[in-house]
Structure formats: structure tokens, C-alpha cells
Write a structure and sequence with these properties.
By secondary structure, this protein is α/β, with parallel strands linked by helices. The chain contains eight helices and ten strands. The protein binds adenosine-5'-diphosphate.
Length: 241
């Protein structure tokens, strides 16, 4: 296995006569932490939605964990998403009437597990994001940073291959944003591959690889080789422990 968990080749996405992506190629290997930056409208969210299989490309190839998504039915894509992909959004997307544990348990809704087991996994995931004491709280009882940590727990509860985050710190104050970033780094240190869209250039600069987008294309990709090498080395060290 090449180690690539994600590969886009010449991906084009058009909406009517809007060319959101005009031929994006990108490969991400297991264990990488990639920042995607670029001006508003450059195609970042479109790319993330395609990587997350929420949307299909107009043309080009998308391979997730070795699966060519073009050959898959909508049911198979749902399965692929459930098995391999975790999403974190800028505005959390939590169910307001549900507790933190119930929100997180939604992350394994399709795993075919009994309710009690889903709850156990949710409590465990909340512990991992430092919210073991907020299990029964509802979103309105939580701070912005805590809500995002619940959303991250929901994204990781199923043990995804890749975590996709679209401006995860965009709605947070500086301190909460820094805590969320620290958490993503911790998850990455534990082996989760992370792809994060951000407007925050300082945040991006602190990450080993930055993919810059402009006008529907990758205009710059810094650190890909080094990051891939470091990720492969980290994975090898983990495997030999
Ligand atoms: P970014 O995330 O970098 O701000 P987007 O991927 O959201 O950029 O958008 C890229 C371009 O595609 C923009 O011109 C946007 O208006 C357009 N676009 C995105 N989604 C849709 C859609 N569902 N329908 C029509 N146009 C869209």
C-alpha cells in the first residue's frame, strides 16, 4: 500500500457555469496534517465536500482509502463515509435538543451497534476530547469551544481514517480556537489523518503542509514531500512500538 488515504486526480466541479474546481490533484498519506488555505470562493469547501463524498465531481478521479468513489452507489458511499470519514464544521451542526453523548453517538449511528454500546463509545470519545464532565449537557449549556469539541468527538467516535474540518476555529475566540487546534494535533499525533480548511494563516503556517487554492486550482503545495516522509516515519515508529 502506498499509504495514500486520499487521492484527487484532475478533479473538476462545475455548478451551471460556475467552475468551482478546475482540475485539482492532491494526494494525502496516512498520518498527515494538511492545512487548506486560499481566498473565499477559491474552491476549498467544494474540494472538502468532494473528499468527504458529500458531493461528486463533474469529472476526474477521487480515491478514498483505496476506493474509487465513481464506481460506488449512494449506499456504498454512505458506508464509506461512516467507516472512513469524520466531519467537523465551523458552526458545529449539533442537535440542539440532544445531550453531548447523544450527539456524539450519532457519529456511529450506522455502525449497527446497540444503543448502549453507542452510548459507551460516545462517553469514551467525550473523555478523549476532555469533556468527560459534560456528557449530559445540551449544546446551549456549553461554550463555543466545548460545542466544537463535542463535534470533534462525534467525528472521531467511529475511528475515521481521515478527519475533515471546515474552518473549525472560525466561530471561536482565540483561546478556544487554540484549544481546538491543540486537540486536532493530539488526534493527529495519535495517528488520525487531518485535513483542515482555515482562513487563519498563522494557524496554517504552524502545520507541516499547506495546500493553497486559488480560482479552483491548487496554486501551491508546501511541505508535501517532507510531511509525507515525516508521516510515514511516524507511522513506522508507531507500528514498531
Ligand atoms: P471557498 O470554500 O474557498 O470559499 P467554495 O468551494 O465554497 O469556495 O466555492 C467555490 C465557488 O463555487 C464559488 O464561486 C461558489 O460561489 C461556487 N459554489 C459553491 N457551491 C455551490 C453551489 N452549491 N451552487 C452554485 N455555486 C456554488
Amino acid at each position: 500500500m502506498s499509504g495514500a488515504v486520499l487521492a484527487l486526480r484532475d478533479v473538476v466541479k462545475t455548478y451551471g457555469d460556475v467552475h468551482a474546481l478546475r482540475g485539482v490533484s492532491l494526494e494525502v498519506v496516512a498520518g498527515e496534517f494538511v492545512a487548506v488555505v486560499g481566498p473565499s470562493g477559491s474552491g476549498k469547501s467544494t474540494m472538502l465536500n468532494i473528499v468527504g463524498t458529500l458531493d461528486r465531481p463533474t469529472s476526474g478521479t477521487v480515491t478514498i482509502a483505496g476506493n474509487d468513489v465513481a464506481t460506488m452507489s449512494d449506499d456504498e458511499l454512505s458506508r464509506l463515509r461512516a467507516d472512513h470519514i469524520g466531519f467537523v464544521f465551523q458552526h458545529f451542526h449539533l442537535q440542539t435538543g440532544a445531550t453531548a453523548a447523544e450527539n456524539v453517538a450519532d457519529g456511529v449511528l450506522y455502525a449497527g451497534l446497540p444503543r448502549r454500546e453507542r452510548h459507551r463509545l460516545a462517553v469514551d470519545a467525550l473523555g478523549r476530547v476532555g469533556l468527560g464532565h459534560r456528557v449530559d449537557h445540551r449544546p446551549h449549556q456549553l461554550s463555543g469551544g466545548e460545542k466544537q469539541r463535542v463535534a470533534i468527538a462525534r467525528a472521531i467516535v467511529g475511528g475515521p481514517t481521515i478527519l475533515l474540518a471546515d474552518e473549525p476555529t472560525g466561530a471561536l475566540d482565540t483561546a478556544s480556537g487554540a484549544a481546538v487546534l491543540a486537540l486536532l494535533r493530539e488526534l493527529n499525533d495519535g495517528g488520525t489523518t487531518v485535513l483542515v480548511i482555515t482562513h487563519d494563516l498563522e494557524l496554517a503556517a504552524s502545520l507541516p503542509r499547506q495546500v493553497r487554492m486559488r480560482d479552483g486550482l491548487v496554486s501551491q503545495d508546501d511541505g508535501a514531500g517532507a510531511a509525507a516522509g515525516a508521516a510515514a516515519l511516524a507511522a513506522a515508529i508507531r507500528d514498531h512500538r
